[in-house]
Write a structure and sequence with these properties.
alpha/beta; six-stranded mixed sheet; disordered N terminus
């Protein structure tokens, strides 16, 4: 996918507060298409709030968001092009894995042979074909995460939004998830992923550091590691945080 076309997501001075407490300070950001882009930071950094604003699930207090070069969050034309995997389990536990995927496919207007074929394709993609007939309630937590990824992929989204997709899964499965994300990116999907497992975000092509609702840094992972002269991305985040705290002390 060409990087010369419209930006996938454009944020212009977007901010949000809850009960008078800022969750996002004014944020201006352009996220290009055709890349794996990471939003990194600890719990409470503002990652989920930002995703919900992009999805149209929350309205910003100020600022403007543009998706796919022309659409507002919540516009059905934008929603049809987005696959979303939330942090919390968002499946029908009494249905089996295949039935869940087919249900979400029908929500996006898929029907008949096309839905059947795509359902089997995404179940195979997440290595669940052999467990597809088991009720979701009987699956392990890792398998449930894989079903959720399959439901987000079934309608072939051009933008995949993943909120802490590897939370609660073992290290080997986390690595496998990132391998899947890389393949999807190579196939043309744009991926926006949040994680507080900062070290694993070296798999992203570009990341931003968020802390307390503020943007600390943005660059390629290796560039950030080299900028701060550290061994890994987590140490770079720590150094970026200290640099911001030092700046605040100098400019109260």
């Amino acid at each position: 996918m060409s990087h010369e076309s419209h930006a996938m997501i454009e944020l212009d001075h977007v901010s949000k507060a809850f009960g008078g407490r800022p969750a996002l300070h004014p944020l201006t950001l352009t996220i290009p298409e055709g890349r794996i882009f990471g939003l990194l930071g600890p719990n409470g950094a503002g990652k989920t709030t930002l995703l919900k604003i992009i999805m149209g699930l929350q309205r910003p207090d100020a600022g403007r968001v543009v998706l796919f070069g022309e659409l507002a969050p919540g516009d059905p034309r934008a929603t049809r092009r987005i696959g979303y995997m939330p942090q919390q389990l968002a499946l029908y536990e009494e249905l089996n894995a295949r039935e869940n995927v087919r249900f979400f496919g029908r929500l996006y207007g898929m029907r008949g042979d096309a839905l059947h074929a795509r359902t089997e394709e995404v179940l195979e993609r997440v290595a669940l074909s052999h467990e597809a007939d088991r009720p979701v309630r009987d699956l392990s937590g890792g398998m449930q995460h894989r079903v959720m990824l399959a439901t987000a992929l079934v309608h072939r989204p051009s933008l995949l939004i993943l909120d802490e997709p590897t939370t609660g899964v073992d290290p080997s499965l986390r690595l496998r998830f990132w391998e899947w994300f890389e393949v999807l990116s190579e196939e043309g999907a744009s991926i926006l992923v949040t994680t507080h497992h900062i070290a694993e975000a070296v798999h992203c092509q570009e990341v931003i550091f968020l802390r307390d609702g503020s943007l600390l840094e943005r660059d390629a992972p290796q560039a950030l590691i080299e900028r701060y002269g550290v061994a890994d991305l987590e140490a770079a985040f720590v150094q970026a945080t200290r640099a911001r705290e030092d700046q605040v002390e100098l400019d109260p």
